[in-house]
Amino acid sequence: MRGAVLLLLVVGIHFGLCAQTGPSHVEVIQNEEGFDLLRDGEPYQILGAGAKDHFPLLKASGANSFRLWSTGKVNLLDSALKYDMTVSLGLHVRPERSGMDYNDGYAVRGQIEQLKSEVLKFKDHPALLVWGIGNEMDLKYTNLKVWETVEEIAAFIHEVDPHHPTMTVIAGFDPAKSYMIRTHCPSVDILGVNAYGSIENLPRNVRRFNWEKPYIVTEWGVNGPFEARKTTWGAKLEPPGGVKAEQRKRRYLELIDKDREQCLGSYCFLWGQKQESTATWHGMFTPDGVPTDAVDAMAFCWSGSWPEPRAPSIMNISMNGIPWMKEHVVHAGERAELNLDCPLCASQEVELVVRLFPESVSKKIGGDIQKRLEEMEVDVVAQGENMVAFITPDKPGAYRVFVFAQNEHRQVSVANVPFLVE
Q: Full-prediction pTM beyond 0.85?
């Protein structure tokens, strides 16, 4: 059924939706109920994801927009047009933590002029929805002059592009950030906020900290690795896939969708995959490109109904009878048993695949690129319904074992357990 829907979407879009050649007119309006985003005069609630691929499934799941962090892959604007979606297009303002010195006038001017040229290049693309000026420049920063760069770019956009609003994107929200942007960036129309655990208080804090313009939740999902509990050896505890999918659904329905007064919509993170402490923490697809139960959760949020068929969804995993949120210390070369709680597995043909990796030691933050870990060989010695056993590594150290529960429709749920070999 899902395949048929995707085929119809692709055919219909190819023949009927690529005629537009000029820019859409996008504007923010304020009325008695709050703020609305209008696209060509019609209300446009952003149902979006941070994405660079898997667009047919994104569209079929009910999304209408995706976010790009830079203009580095401009062909994706055409992909958006092909699938009748829009783009929040990022302008990469270098963060201070990457080595950018905002006291260096030459470097600052060079960056601004480069970004102005990108604005001129892409401002008339019909898929463009909103400009995203920078991403998390406020993370670990000390030089407040970065806001002068944001304001100059936003003001320039207003001069040359009357069709698209401006937005700047910050990491979380607090009174100081609200003050700095209100005071130094009057040409910014929309506040973009990347909020993970802090999303629980975001609608309230937007009002408490006197942000009076609209906002978009530009990244959100499950609590990030930087917010996770750790073992005594420093491994971060990642919830099972089903727990994360339920958290996504609740946060969307109870926090994002309910704030129609100031929130113009959101871009969930991440419609794809990346290494961030683990290979599965934020990604809604596996490294092999298989959709997880997080995709189903977002389809429910966007469309109001569950897709068919459903992905498996692991709600709990234990190792040797100890739940995932506890510490696991084992001996080298011994048998370890993993047990899953996966209610949706009962009605499907599900294959369990075990994968073993060394524990990540990366200290990078803010979405900075992390190196993918090298997979290790694993000796699986027993397997049953929602159970699999393996032999622990011979070498002492920190490891993480993953279980992928995949059905015949190539949908998957993933859970993992970090463990220490003594």
A: yes
Tell me the average pLDDT across 223-251: 97
- Other CB atoms within 10 Å distance of the CB of residue 373: 16
Alpha-carbon span 34 to 50, nearest angstrom: 26
Rounded Cα distance between 144 and 149, Å, is 10
> Hunting for tokens 């970065």 — which residue is that?
146
Distances 246 to 147, 229, 241, 294, 312 between C-alpha atoms, Å: 37, 19, 9, 8, 13
Whole-angstrom distance, CA of residue 131 vs CA of residue 192: 10
Q: Round to whole Å and give the CA distance between 116 and 184.
A: 19
Residue 57 has which token pair?
Answer: 């499934």
Structure tokens at 78: 């055409």
Chain centroid to CA 148: how far?
28
Residue 150 DSSP SS3: helix
From CA 76, how far away is CA 86, in angstroms rounded?
A: 10
- What confidence tens digit (pLDDT) does each residue in 96-119 have? 999 999 999 999 999 999 999 999
DSSP secondary structure letter of residue 69: S
**Tokens linked to 320:** 């040797």
Residue 350 CA to residue 285 CA, distance in Å, equals 17
